[in-house]
Each structure stands twice: as structure tokens, then as C-alpha cells.
Amino acid sequence: MTRSPEPLLSIEDLRVSFAIRSGFLRRTKAEVRGVDGVSFSVMQGKTLGIVGESGCGKSTTARAIIGLETPNSGAISFAGERIELATPKRRRQLARHIQMIYQDPFASLNPRKTVEQIIGEGWLVHPDLVPESERKAETALLMRRVGLDPALSNRFPHQFSGGQRQRIGIARALALRPRLLVCDEPVSALDVSVQAQTLNLLAELQHELGLTYVFIAHDLSVVRHVSDTIAVMYLGRIVETGPIGPIYARPAHPYTLALMSAAPVSRPWAVSRPSRIVLKGELPSPLAPPPGCRFHTRCWMARARCRIEEPKLREVAGRKTACHFAEEVVAEAAPIGTP
Amino acid sequence: MSVAPAAPSPHAKSPRRGKLDLRLLVPALFCTLYVLAAVFGPFLTHYDPVATNTSQRLRPPLTELRDGSLALFGTDQVGRDLFGQVIAGAQISLTVGILTLLLAGTVGTALGVLAGYRGGWLDTVVMRLADIQLAFPSILLAVLIAAVLGPSLVNVILVLALTRWVVFARVARAQTLAVRVRDFVNASRTLGASHLHIVRHCILPAVVAPILVVATVQFGLVIVAEASLSFLGLGMPPGTPSWGISIANGRNYLVTAWWISTMPGLVLSALVIAVGILGDRLRDRFDPNLTTR
């Protein structure tokens, strides 16, 4: 497969904020910066994993990519086209190429439609994609592709299990033959055994169809399993990003290190592993992010400089990280998870 | 990859489904009876609203008249057969009820969905308007407008629809607000769907069930309201056999000929109760806690 040197999706300094309104004239009282200056790019056929705890802005980033949120500033380019500047009509056309897998398979399927109607909904919106006479066969094909029995096409979502519903969601996204799939915690609502099946299905589909994924999760082992590159988010910013290998081997940001030390490993007796780092305190309110480094309120390595000067993303040991003392973190971090 | 069979879900369905639900069936049959009476009754009873038969006036129910026919509900003060009168009234009441609900339901649902979906100033304007209207007792409002427009079938329907759209609008808006933020609506939007597509395929199917339930409740109220307006002389023109007019006609004879007011009143009450029970049952059926959505 030939790969274009240009990334399929690239995001430049994305900012999405939510206004908090109150009072008589619903004046804007405050602004929550959900995503505050995020940049990354994904190459065709590759997977970018985004991790971070709840409220760090990973889902908002996903919603901005698929057009459910309007960015306040920044650029979202898909195949060289600035999609956040597209007219609503053009944006709806582009929707065909960028699809999303939702977190909750119980909320993301219309309870009043059959599986066939759900999978075929995209063809009502984009009628040129599949001729009407071939839609039934195409639905059966898609259902078989995601591991569902085509005989069940007349059933309703509530007659399926969580894993099966997620497969229906995947088939619905694939029906439009997209190039980019944004997966917003696609397995976190599923049982562990079903998680693995779903992840394998996504991996197979990527291999066969050359799909590009933006894969959002809070589970580090899941992200490691599927991703080529990773971005760790904290309070609306990326704190560390780069290829999976170096980051998982030796994190260069204290937050990444803390996340990794909290992730369970299989065969813990065979793994040399530093003691678990437990972060103190809560995620600060995104209404008033701390000055300087946003992580300093919970960082055990924080020094005076961290409270004043905000660290920029810089190249350290094969990845980009936003920590003043990244070199020290790399040195401290023993290789994790490798026997 | 293996093909997974659908999980059997015994709890997903309503436990009553498939079984004969008498509390749904009985009121439904009752309502059907009224509809049949309204449609075919006038062909069988030959009621003439202007015919008088003074020799047969004020006969109590179940009297055999001189021409050999049985006055099932008795006769009124000018000798008209009350049973025929009630049957003819059914036609008017049902027409008013159905047409009013169609008009109020369509307008109210459309405005409610629009307000809930669009939000913003449109929502504020429509809903404040609804609030202002709800602050008036609806029958007072109806009396006021009916007095200006004058009595006629079309005016009654217009007046009653004007007082009822609010209920539909509020329910439709509430349901729209609840559905609009769900993930499957986002999923449709992600597919590139237009607003029209989303309203048609996601919002309206979810709005229909509660609206139907509201309609059954409102049906009884509309029929009572029509009778009230007619009783006051503001509904149907005098001479039409509306139930309300029949009841009004008998109010001077309540002591000597109780049946003139009582018979149409009983028929009216029975219909309202039947429709009320039917609506109650339907609400249980559509309850998301009883049937998975």
C-alpha cells in the first residue's frame, strides 16, 4: 500500500470551550476550556490512541473531529481539507469519510429501528453510495463482516447483548466506507472477554480496509494493544505524545508514569515494576486551571519553576513531552511491563 | 470470525404482551361501539331534530309509543326520541373530538418539536406563549373566543383546538429535549444527516407514543368541553342534537322528567371514562420501564 506523506488527519492548536451562562440575560459567566490547544496528526492506516482520565478533554476532541462540537479556534484538516471551515452541506458530505464508534452501545442505537434500518441509515443520507437494490445484500455482507448473523437483521437493538450492539454500531459506521474511524472508548462499556473480541475485530478491519483510527480510552493496556502512536491528555492539553514503544518503555512525564504504574499487568510476578504511584488530590477544575504546569498540584516532582512557567511540548528521548524535568523522569522510570 | 446468535432477552418484553389484556380490550371495545353508533346509528334510528310529537312528550325510558316503537331512553318535552337524539349527538361529539385532536395535535406537536429541537429564542417564545395560555382556565378562554366567533361546528373545533395545542406542545417538547441529546441522534448526525432527517427518523418516532397517550386523555376533555360550550349556547347552533344541548334542554324538567338530561349525560360520562381508562392503559404500555425502548 502506498502511503501519502501527508497525514490523513491533522489537528493544529485545537481549542473548544463551553460557556457557562446564568442570570437574567443568560450572560456568559465563565468559560470551561475543555480542550485547550491540542495538536496531533494521524497517518493513513495508523492508529492514534488518546488516553487520560475523565474530564481531560479526550471525548471533546473526538466530538470536534466528527463535527458535534464547534472549535473556538484551531485547525482540523482531513486529507488536506480544513473541515471546521466547511459549509454545513460540505461537512455533511465529508461525514461519509469520518465515522464514529460510540462508547455506550445501549444509547447509540435507535431503539425503534431494526438492525437493517440502523445499518442502512447512512445510505438514506448518502443515497449514491449503494444503489437501493443492493442495500439488502450489502447489509448482510456488513453484518457477516462484523460477526453478526444476517438472519437477525429484522431484530431490534434491545434483543442483542452489549458486544453485539457494538458490532452493529461498527457495521453502521462501515456502511459509509469511511477512511477515518473515531472510536470513543468503544470497549469500556463491555465485559473484558467481549472487549478483546471487539478490539480484534477493529484490528482486522483496519488491516483489511486500510482504516485510520483515533482511539480514545482510559485503559492503557487497550490503547497499547491497538495504537501506533499515543497522546496522553491532562486537563485539556497533551502532556506527552509519540510512538507507543518509547513511551510505554520509559515515560517522560510524571503523569504518564503515574498512569502506567496504576495499570494492571498480567503475570505481575514476572514483571519488574516500580511501586505504584498514587496521585494525591482531585483533577483541578478546568474552570480555573492551575498556573504554570497544569499538573503541578498533583505532581510529586513539582518544584518552584513548575508553578510559574508552563512547560512546552519538546522532544525528549524519542517522543514529545511537556515537563521541565523530563530527563529526570526518564531516568527514574524503570522499564515497565517488560519481563 | 464466528457468527454470534442473538441473546434471548426474556425480560426485554412486557410480561403482559401476548396475553389478553382485559383492561385494554374492554374500553377499546366500548369506544368502538360509540364509533359504530356514530357512523351507522343515524341510518337506523331516523332522528329528526325539528319533528315534534306533542302527544308523546315526556315519556319515561322503556315506554312503548303509540306507533309501536320502543322509546329506549324516553322522549323529551316536544316528543322527540331521546335514544335517536343521543345517537345523532354521538356523531357530533366524535367529529368534534377527533377533528379537534387532529388539529391541536398536529399544530401542538409540530411547535413542540420545533421549540425543543431548535431551542433558543424560538423555544422561549413558544413556551412562554404556552405558559400564558395555561394560566387562563381553558374553558374560560373557549367561552371568550366562542362568544366572539359565534356558534358553529367549525368554530367549536377551532376554539377547542386553540385551547388544547399547549398540552401537545409541552409533551412533544419535553420528549424532544430528552431524545435530542441521546447518542443515537449524535450517531445520525455523524452520518451526515440533515435536521429534517433527524426529526423524521429519530425525534418523531419517539414523540408519537406519549402524544397518542395524551390524545386519549384529551379526547374525553374535548368532548366534555364541547358539551359545556353547547350547554352554554356557545358551541353548536341550537337545534343540533349535541349532547350538551340535550342536557341543557332537560334542565327545566329535572324533577318531572329526569331522563332528558340524565340519558345524554350518562352516555357522555361512559365515553369519557372509557377513553380515560384506555389512555391509562396505553400509558402503561408505552412506559419505558415496562417495555424496553
Q: Would you give an account of this structure?
A:
Chain A: This is Dipeptide ABC transporter ATP-binding protein. Chain A: Residues 20-260 form the ABC transporter domain. Chain A: Belongs to the ABC transporter superfamily. The complex is a heterodimer of chains A (339) and B (293). Chain A is of the alpha/beta class and 339 residues long. Chain A has an eight-stranded mixed beta sheet with strand order 6-7-8-3-9-10-12-11, with helices on both faces. Chain A has a domain at 251-339. Chain A has helices spanning 58-66, 88-94, 115-125, 135-145, 162-174, 192-209, 220-226, 244-249, 254-262, 304-308, 326-332, and strands at 9-22, 27-42, 47-51, 73-78, 81-82, 98-101, 180-184, 212-216, 229-234, 237-243, 314-316, 319-321. The mean pLDDT of chain A is 88. Chain B has a single domain, classed as Orthogonal Bundle (MetI-like fold), CATH 1.10.3720. Chain B has helices spanning 22-45, 82-118, 120-135, 138-149, 153-180, 183-190, 195-231, 243-249, 259-286, and strands spanning 63-64, 70-71. Chain B has a two-stranded antiparallel ribbon with strand order 1-2. Mean pLDDT of chain B is 84; it is low at 1-16. Classes of the chains: A alpha/beta (339), B mainly alpha (293). Chain A binds chain B through residues 66-68, 91-96, 98-100, 102-104, 107-113, 121-122, 124-126, 144, 147-149, 152, 155, 158-161, 163-164, 169, 172, 176, 201, 204, and chain B through 1-7, 9, 12, 182-184, 186-194, 197, 201-202, 205-206, 292-293.
Summary, kept brief:
The complex is a heterodimer of chains A (339) and B (293). Chain A is an alpha/beta fold and 339 residues long. Chain A has helices at residues 58-66, 88-94, 115-125, 135-145, 162-174, 192-209, 220-226, 244-249, 254-262, 304-308, 326-332, and strands spanning 9-22, 27-42, 47-51, 73-78, 81-82, 98-101, 180-184, 212-216, 229-234, 237-243, 314-316, 319-321.
